Amino acid sequence: PADFLNALRLNERNPQGASRTLFSACFTRVCFGASYGFVSLVKTQRCFLYLKGIHMIERFFTLYKIPAALLFCTALLLSGCGGNGAVTAEETKLVMGTVARLTVRADEITSQAALRDGMAVLTQTEQDADGVALAAVEAAAGTGEWREIPRTLYETLSRAQEGARRSHGAFDVTAGALTELWERARAEKLPPSAEAVAAARACVGYELLELRTREENGQTKYEARLMKAGMQFDRGALIKGLALDGICSTWQRAGITNALADLGTSSMLGMGVNEAGEPWQIGIRNPRGERAGDMIAVLPLSDEVLSVSGDDERYFMYEGRRYHHLIDPRTGYPADTGLSSVAVTLPLAAEYAAGWEGNMGMLSDMLSTAVFVLGAEEGRKLLADVPSALVILIGTDGKVIGE
Ligand code: ADP
Ligand code: MG
After folding, report:
1. Rounded to the nearest whole angstrom, what is the distance from the C-alpha of residue 248 to the centroid of ligand 2?
2. Other Cβ atoms closer than 10 A to 396
């Protein structure tokens, strides 16, 4: 039976929940068995006694009908409460270089299954089958040759290209040569030379990434090519949003309505409400706070995604200047537009974003990076196309400069 199987499945993660489920399944069976047996006995006896006409003994069994019915009702009631009450289940795991925390409110079995499926999406994103396809495209960069890529990767890159066009290259999925240069600089705590920056910048440009589809033997093939040798991809600015979209569709398919996925506070998905029946409350970190836990704002999140891009996550100081990980591909240097953090929230069901359904995580992730690189003024222009986006801009002095 399904509840016994579920109890066994549960056992891997939640032994306590498993024993409760197992106990309730066994108890329900025993109660059902006992009451069914008793009622059958009463019936058989009644038949027999009618035949014999011994009315005294018939009355004796009639008396026991009431306890039998009570026992039957208790069994029904217990089978109703056996693990079906809403619980808040939570799991934390170090994955994709961050502490991911998933919270699901549903009955015990459903919530445990949802946690397992959500974590599987994250592990799969980390194992990253797409990375192999991207490496093949990079290896052929500058040769003019096309490389086949999976359809899902083709769709991700197409959306990234749209983000790049709309942000005039402030967000650029081909920024790999530059971001790698600055990552090395961060490790050495030394800015790269102007020549190195110029050389890497020459290997960046979304207009040098081409995508196409073609038909072969009745099948659609998806292909990509990079037009310049040395070009590299970097999906760092959209990958957490992509993972959130995967979790969101998995949970929606499973009928989950109340849940929170927190990928290291910079990317969040809030579905429905929390235990108190209110939207999930998310603290926005003060990038200039004295402690990591200093908050500058609290945002309600209900059927929305949130993405934060800040200069306080990965940076190094050199001669009094902050060199962070959000690079302006147009200059080749860390973006310097007076912002220290950008938070963007988007509703999951944003009707304006035709063709972006089910991709709000990726859109908000790209937008937070793009707005950070563009600065407040240009960033607001970009967001004019996305009216239901809510944005919090924090200046380099740690003050909120606009919403
Ligand atoms: P987080 O580090 O929280 O994921 P972001 O979503 O803003 O923050 O992503 C930052 C990452 O995106 C960087 O570490 C880098 O790999 C990549 N990146 C930096 N600048 C750009 C850019 N202009 N366009 C695209 N990707 C970028
Ligand atoms: Mg981002």
Report:
1. 18
2. 16
Q: Which helix (H) or strand (E) holds 139?
A: helix 129-139
Give this prediction's pTM: 0.81
Q: Which tokens go with 56?
A: 């005294």
pLDDT attached to residue 71:
58
- CA 59, 65, 68, 70 torsion: positive or negative? negative
Mutate to test the pocket of ligand 1, among 95, 204, 326 (most ligand atoms within 8 A of CB): 326
Q: What is the dihedral of CA 21, 24, 29, 35, to 10 degrees?
A: -170
Query: Which of 96, 179, 339 to probe ligand 1 with, by most ligand atoms within 8 A of CB?
Result: 179
Regions in the chain scoring below 50 on pLDDT: 2, 11-13, 47-51, 53, 73, 75-84
CB-based contacts of 316, cutoff 8 Å, min separation 6: 185, 186, 189, 322, 323
Instruction: Tell the residue nearest (CA) to atom 15 of ligand 1.
Output: 236
Measured in degrees and rounded to the nearest 5, phi and psi for residue 153 equal: -70, -40
pLDDT value for 126: 86
Structure tokens at 267: 């990317």
